[in-house]
Structure formats: C-alpha cells, structure tokens
Write a structure and sequence with these properties.
Elements lengths: L4 E3 L13 E3 L29 E2 L17 H20 L50 E7 L8 E8 L4 E8 L4 E10 L7 E6 L12 E8 L5 E7 L8 E2 L15 E4 L2 E5 L4 E8 L3 E10 L6 E5 L6 E7 L4 E8 L5 E2 L6 E3 L11 E7 L7 E8 L5 E6 L5 E5 L13 E3 L20 E6 L2 E10 L2 E9 L4
Antiparallel strand pairs: 1-2, 3-25, 4-5, 5-6, 6-7, 8-9, 9-10, 10-11, 12-13, 13-14, 14-15, 16-17, 17-18, 18-19, 18-20, 21-22, 22-23, 23-24, 25-26, 26-27, 27-28
Length: 471
C-alpha cells in the first residue's frame, strides 16, 4: 500500500508532531506481502475487532527496572548489612540451608480446543500442560487483538497474540475459527528486552478514501532499545503475514525507560521521562499528535484504556497513581477534555517492584440489557499472585474484587491480555453482544492459558479454553 503525504496544518496545543509532512495512513510503503494458504482466513467482508493490552514485562537490566529511585539508597544499606551478616556467619562456621528444588513431569502442550471443550473450571479440572515452550520468555509481555467475519454463516473470528522470546525477538501467533489452528511467526521488529506491548486495530472503511472497505489493519506498538515508541503493522485483507514498520517511527516519541503502553484506536498512552501520562492520537490526514494529559502517575505505572461509551464517544484511561492505587480518568472524544467519573475507581494494587510493574489489564463488553451501554472489567494480580476481577455495569459503580477458579495458578508477575472489540467502525458503529469475544490470556507454568468469560443471567463465570501451542 502506498503512503500519501499532506502538509502538516495544525496540531493540539502542546503536541509534538513530526516535521513538514505526515503520513495519512500509519503504514510503511514497502511492506512485503506473503500469503499462506493455511491462514487465508481473513475473508473479504470481515468486520473489525479491537483490543489493547497492558503488559507486565519483568527482569529488565537494573537501570530499566521499576524500583523506585527513592528506595535505591535503602536497598544499598540493606545489602551492606546482609553482606556483613553473611561474612560473620561464614567466619563462625555457619552454613545457610539450600532450598530444595523439585522437578515435575513434563507433558506436551495441547492444541487449543474449542471453547466448549471444557466445562466451568475447578481447581482440579484445569488442564495442566507441563512442556514449557522455548520460544516465549518467562513472564513475557503479551498483547492480543481479534476481529470477526460477521458475513460468514458461522460468524468466524480471528485472534492474534504477540509476545517476546528469550532473545528479545517479538513473535506472533494467530488463530482462525475457519481452520481451527494456530500459526506462529517471528516478527522482524527490533524491541528492547521486556518491552511493553500494546496492540489495536482499525477498519479501513472507517476512512472513506482509505483502502478497500474490507481492509483490516492491525497496529502493534512497543519500545525500541532507546525507549522510542515504535510501530509494526499488518494489512490482513492483503494476507500480509510479514507486516512492516509504521509511520509513527519517524516521530522519535521517547518514553520513560520503565513506561508501560496501552492503546485503543486511535489513542496510545504512555509515561514520559517526568512521570506524566501522555496521549498520542492518530488523525486521518494529519498523522500523529502527542500531548500531555497533565496527570502525574506512579513510576512504572500500570496502564489501560477501554471504550466506556458506544461509538468511542468516551474512553476510560486507567493508571496507577502516585499513591499506588489504580484510578481512572475519562476522555471525551469530541472535546478532548479529561474528567474523573462519578463513581471513581480507587483500587489498591501491588506497587511496581524491581521485578516489574503490577500485572493489570482492562476490557469492555456490551451490556446484556442495554445495547447502547458498555460494561467495564479490570483484571489485576494481587500480592498473593491471585488474579482478581472488578467490574462496572454501565455507570453504576464498581463491584468486586472477585476471583475465579479458571484464573488460578497464574505465574507471579505474568502479563495479562484481554480482547475488546471495536466500537467505531463505519459499517458496525457499536459493539454488540453477538460480536464480543470475552477472552483473556496469561502465563501459567510458562505456558499461555486462554480463558473465556461466560455471562449467564447477569452472573459472570470464567472457563478455561486451553493453552496456546507456542513452540
């Protein structure tokens, strides 16, 4: 796909926009397009789905970790005391006991079954793959997106999940219900170790003069080795399984070294080097606009963004405040104004630590009784490594936290990714119950577990779908 350019005319106050020209579509002019017959499942007529994710990388080099600057001296003092104690113990002939390491049996990772393959999970019924995949890092960042082909007789859908391996390479694994199989490919993008990942997508038909009406474009955002915000994208209607770099790369937007990323098209949020929350918005015809939200957040703060009104009229931006509590600020799409919602969220979650940020994600589903309204859900991992859920029906206030058997057994510090479908497409302007794909992903024993929410009579339950066949 060719990139057209137009002279830059304006941008919001305080924005940082690249020099004289901007691309009018976030794509690279020389994307290599390769078709694989086994995954030609993104059919013409496929309607859009949308997801963003907030991912919990860990084990970065010490200068990139989330340890508070104010705690460094305290850590140094504790380290000196510990070294002195060990030296004294050695001099007195003392020996510290070694922790016993137990090894378990290893089984192969099962292929992903259909969502009806497992009943509601109990602690004993959760399937337990024990073959640890080698192409995904321990506590890898995760990002996932999905879209449906509503014109197909069975309303087929596709899911694409992105993760990082131990060599810091990005990998993609994609599933389609037509072929009922996952296909894993390596992404040629160069990202920093334990990069945050955020993924979203949009429907070209939303821009009347942009591409064909059925063209689906997936947008992946990550940080490079200099903490610059970077983009990789795919045109799935062109069966483009390779993808290529996107236009945001030319802007040199730089994040804090410990910043997280979150996105819901056309928004991206990250943390700047002064710990302020920043917004990047894509504007058709004018490119990328970067401005401050004027909200200072916790260093290495968990981040998330979801639609809270149909047609993207309002989005909710979740962040970990300086007091460590999870909070929300809402953005009006038309005016661009930010405000705190009436039933304000103020949930205590674990503080970011040396090993990484607090695992967290958010997603939205259509309200079961009021089709014009959206429900909001958040998942986070508490201090005992248990994944908890809180939720809000329309604007009725927050409920929970509550956990479920299918969410048990997550690795401590795992990334969590969930799917939210699009609510701003020209041909499907609102989220619908029959288009929702309420699935989430996290690591358990190093494997990526797929779980699905079932809403029956107003009650939520989670069941295990399976484990992704990552090699």
């Amino acid at each position: 796909m060719d990139i057209n350019t137009v002279p830059m005319k304006f941008g919001p106050k305080g924005s940082h926009i690249s020099e004289e020209k901007q691309t009018i579509i976030p794509h690279h002019p020389e994307v290599v397009q390769i078709a694989y017959p086994t995954l030609e499942a993104v059919h013409p007529g496929q309607l859009p789905g949308e997801i963003y994710a907030y991912y919990e990388p860990v084990k970065e080099p010490w200068h990139r970790r989330c340890m508070s600057r104010k705690r460094i001296w305290l850590t140094a003092i504790i380290l000196i005391i510990t070294i002195t104690a060990v030296a004294l113990g050695t001099a007195l002939g003392l020996t510290l006991p070694k922790k016993k390491v137990e090894s378990g049996n290893v089984q192969s990772t099962p292929s992903n079954p259909s969502s009806s393959a497992y009943p509601f999970a109990t602690t004993s019924s959760i399937p337990s793959p024990t073959a640890r995949p080698t192409s995904i890092a321990t506590l890898s960042p995760l990002a996932v997106t999905a879209w449906r082909n509503t014109k197909s007789p069975n309303n087929e859908f596709s899911i694409q999940l992105v993760f990082q391996d131990d060599q810091d390479r990005l990998q993609s694994i994609m599933y389609n219900t037509t072929f009922k199989e996952w296909r894993q490919t390596q992404i040629a993008a160069v990202a920093k170790k334990s990069t945050p990942l955020a993924i979203t997508r949009f429907y070209h038909g939303a821009y009347s003069s942009m591409g064909t009406p059925n063209d689906e474009q997936v947008e992946l955002f990550y940080l490079d080795q200099k903490n610059r915000l970077s983009e990789w994208n795919w045109d799935w209607d062109a069966n483009n399984f390779t993808g290529g770099p996107g236009s945001i790369n030319a802007n040199n937007f730089t994040a804090a070294s410990a910043s997280r990323l979150t996105t819901y098209w056309p928004f991206i949020y990250y943390q700047d080097q002064d710990d302020y929350l920043r917004e990047i918005r894509y504007s058709y015809g004018y490119g990328w606009h970067n401005q401050s939200v004027d909200t200072k957040i916790h260093e290495c703060a968990a981040l998330g963004v979801v639609p809270i009104a149909q047609n993207n009229a309002r989005v909710g931006v979740f962040y970990q405040a300086q007091d460590g509590r999870l909070k929300e600020v809402q953005r009006d799409y038309t005016s661009g104004d930010y405000s705190y919602e009436a039933h304000s969220l103020s949930q205590a979650i674990p503080l970011p630590s040396e090993s990484g940020p607090s695992p967290f994600t958010a997603f939205a589903l259509t309200n079961l009784t009021t089709a014009s309204a959206l429900d909001t859900y958040i998942l986070y991992q508490d201090s005992s490594a248990t994944i908890q859920m809180q939720w809000r029906y329309e604007d009725t206030g927050w409920k929970g936290p509550k956990t479920f058997d299918a969410l048990k057994g997550a690795d401590n510090g795992t990334g969590i990714a969930c799917i939210t479908m699009e609510t701003a497409a020209a041909s499907a302007p609102t989220l619908r119950v029959d288009s929702d794909i309420p699935r989430c992903y996290f690591q358990s024993g190093g494997n990526v577990r797929e779980v699905e929410m079932v809403r029956d009579g107003g009650e939520e339950e989670w069941r295990v779908v399976g484990y992704l066949p990552i090699t």
